[in-house]
User: Fold these one by one.
Assistant:
Number 1:
Amino acid sequence: MKLQTQLTIAFTTLLIIIMSIVSIMIYSLILDVLIQNEREQLQEKGDILIQFLMSEVNINNFGQLFGDESLQLFIYDGNTEQVVLSTLPENLIQYWMENYDINKYDQPLWKAGDERYVVSILPIYPDLLDQELVLVTPLDDLQEVQRDLFSRLIFIFLIGIGIISILSHYLTRRLVTPLTKLKYQLKKIEKRKFDEVKRVKATGEIKEVEQSVYDMANELNRYIQSQHHFFQNASHELKTPLMTIQGYAEGIRDGIFEKEASDRGLEVMVAEINRLKKIINEMILLAKLDSEENIYKEEKVKMADVIISTVDRALPLASEKQVKIDHYVETDVMLNVDTEKLLRAMMNIVSNGIRHATSKVVIRLYKENQQVKITVEDDGEGIDKEMMPQLFQRFIKGKNGETGLGLAISRAIIERSNGSISVNRSTLGGAQFTITFQL
Ligand SMILES: Nc1ncnc2c1ncn2[C@@H]1O[C@H](COP(=O)(O)OP(=O)(O)OP(=O)(O)O)[C@@H](O)[C@H]1O
Ligand SMILES: [Mg+2]
């Protein structure tokens, strides 16, 4: 069932329940009020009647006093215990005299068969005579008025329910419309038509959901784009060495390369095969870092030891390139990391530095504002500003680059260690990489 229909039904049901309870309460109240009112009216009529009795007007003309209203009354004499005057059947009065106490002025409803009566009793000059004037009205008359009032009330309620239902339908539609529009935008996301996704006007929580949907679509788009680039770059990177190998292999088979040329070809083939192996291994590692949970084995490690091990491993490469490595350790902080993986990340960054440095690479470990920082900088040519934002993506490489996977692997490892990495220009002239861990 549509949300709008559900909301309208819920509202209307609630309204009907409330109105029904109110109606029941009003229905019983009406009769009480009518009885009270009738008693007061009988009292007033009685007072007027007694005044006329005192002025000795012919008692048979009561009827004329109140127009054509047929008065139901009798006068009872307490001394003689007889009814002096009556407009009611005798047996009815007899029955009442036997069952009710006429001396009480506050009377309940008097019964006679199925009929009930509202009663008002007034004393007629209490100092001289012991006579009471009794006026009655059948309850049926009042109940008729009650029913009449009630049916009008129900009519007004029905009109109210109608108007409120229309109003609630309009209000819920305003509420539901943004959701319906959002549904269409989600359909576009499902079909990956990200360019066609439009913003939906909404307020409150729906606005927050809309914002999340919009952000999610953008993120998904970015992810799909990066996957697309990754496959393009990966196939390109794998195809180039394969074509070189194929060229040399076919040349040697067909006798185009002879002796030295053939030896040289075989060497190139081995080198390219090694390069292929390296790319494939790095791609596998990246995929594992992305998806495998237990590839990462944490332990408490002294960060100073990680720096020293890095320098030890980098020394042969540095001396080959005639580059000096300086390192400064300013803290003995321990962190929970996978040592081997972190060493690998450090080596990727340091060996990049050695490859691009003119004369030296500087490594620093220090603490700053509840953060542990490692910086690796060199005095080489540095990195172009335009390249910096994508530097950590897969297969992004500049001049003197190799496979372009090193920094992507480093970032994946550092992020798994709850750290972050950024690149900047170094005061030495080259690039500066900063790794940050929160304490
Ligand atoms: N210290 C640096 N100075 C100048 N450029 C650098 C430096 N470090 C990285 N780069 C640039 O960033 C690119 C990406 O580096 P990355 O380590 O990801 O790949 P790579 O070194 O080319 O290949 P590999 O996968 O073998 O590490 C490099 O190709 C290089 O152009
Ligand atoms: Mg590298």
Number 2:
Amino acid sequence: MHPTIVVKDVCKSFGKKQVLNNVDLTVESGQIYGLIGPSGSGKTTLVKLIVGMDRPSQGDVHVLNTKVPDLHLLQRIGYMAQADALYADLTGEENLAFFGSLFRLKKAELQARIRYAADLVNLTADLKKKVENYSGGMKRRLSLAVALIQDPEVLVLDEPTVGIDPELRQSIWAELRRLKNTGKTILVTTHVMDEAEKCDCLSMVREGEILTSGSPNELKEHYGITNLEEVFLKAGGAKG
Ligand SMILES: Nc1ncnc2c1ncn2[C@@H]1O[C@H](COP(=O)(O)OP(=O)(O)O)[C@@H](O)[C@H]1O
Ligand SMILES: [Mg+2]
């Protein structure tokens, strides 16, 4: 194993408000890594620094041995933002074609990727509809398909399953595991504990700090408890 994402001593402030405090994080190649924490704890801020959409106030981030931000990295990282960034007056298919065209894909390859990504998120039947007529869950699914369109080595997904029904959530997690088994590295944020259980490794985030990290089992053993929700409470309590 070798590290795919390395966050070193990162701080981030907005004005006087410090949102991330000395965050260190290493995601090994081929892992599904979860960032779990309550709303406002800093997950999205951290993820944006990792994909290069924003810059740390202190510290640095490397992805695939390259210092972020880097133009060439964009091709290799699929990013699904928390807020859907889609063109409402285009169809689902046109959105996928547009985002796909930003990458170096041959026409046939692009068509194949559109079919694959749409099928994965169960949108094939809705591809010809305009996104303005999509439900919230359909938009999340399309955003996930967009993140996968260029077949990136690293996937960074910010609360990918919010607004998605349980059945499709299961199938998306099954696909994330399949992608992991083909060697992809996946960083996912969530505030849902049952999703945290599905990760190989977790960091629990609160108030801009990482409280504790480890595999779900390691964390449970370390704190001597059987569910992650309690680990979160204990780790938070230990910090004071
Ligand atoms: N651009 C910004 N300007 C000022 N404050 C921000 C900005 N982005 C995020 N914050 C603040 O940073 C904190 C962490 O937010 P965020 O990273 O979105 O948390 P999470 O994704 O865990 O819900 C919040 O208090 C939020 O209000
Ligand atoms: Mg967020």
